[in-house]
């Protein structure tokens, strides 16, 4: 559903991503982790069609991202870490707008369910510029979920969320994956990644350090016969103890 083949992205003389290849199948949840500047946001923005690849190929549902921009957007939801909403529109108007653009069937029912799940029902008539940081994040997720995309890209989605919001978001990720969506989540919260993701893609300075099942990644750093935590494995991988590009 989501695929990168020898993906490179450079900004003038700065290489953000170099030779990245991976595939996310329906039902999988990929955690995208790495230090600041590792290329995580660049990768998600390129997959969503917001920035072009310098070299290589990116695909969503078998379609080339650059050659089929409209079809890609119909299949993909991208929620950035600082979503840009329409400040003068209310919560309900945002949902109506997305329902119209994506021609969502039974939009009223789906809107109600999403706003209820993310505790935004009471804010339906409130403008976006009056919402808290966490509520804006929730609204962006609701807008992204409304048209049932098959590829979901979440960049630091926990920013500003309270504990109930985090719990609801993680449960929604599990449910969307169970329904067949392919999901990528970028986050520095390794405990969260470990709790919800089936696979992990570890980036360091634009290069893949590991790509594969999260349990396999942890098992490579056993201590006294027990797999390491994701945090332990992450620090070992990014400190050079795991060869670049390892994949299982």
From TrEMBL:
<dbReference type="GO" id="GO:0005524">
    <property type="term" value="F:ATP binding"/>
</dbReference>
<dbReference type="InterPro" id="IPR027417">
    <property type="entry name" value="P-loop_NTPase"/>
</dbReference>
<keyword id="KW-0813">Transport</keyword>
<comment type="similarity">
    <text>Belongs to the ABC transporter superfamily.</text>
</comment>
<keyword id="KW-0547">Nucleotide-binding</keyword>
<keyword id="KW-0067">ATP-binding</keyword>
<dbReference type="InterPro" id="IPR003439">
    <property type="entry name" value="ABC_transporter-like_ATP-bd"/>
</dbReference>
<dbReference type="InterPro" id="IPR003593">
    <property type="entry name" value="AAA+_ATPase"/>
</dbReference>
<dbReference type="GO" id="GO:0016887">
    <property type="term" value="F:ATP hydrolysis activity"/>
</dbReference>
<feature type="domain" description="ABC transporter">
    <location>
        <begin position="2"/>
        <end position="230"/>
    </location>
</feature>
<dbReference type="Pfam" id="PF00005">
    <property type="entry name" value="ABC_tran"/>
</dbReference>
<protein>
    <submittedName>
        <fullName>ABC-type transporter ATP-binding protein EcsA</fullName>
    </submittedName>
</protein>
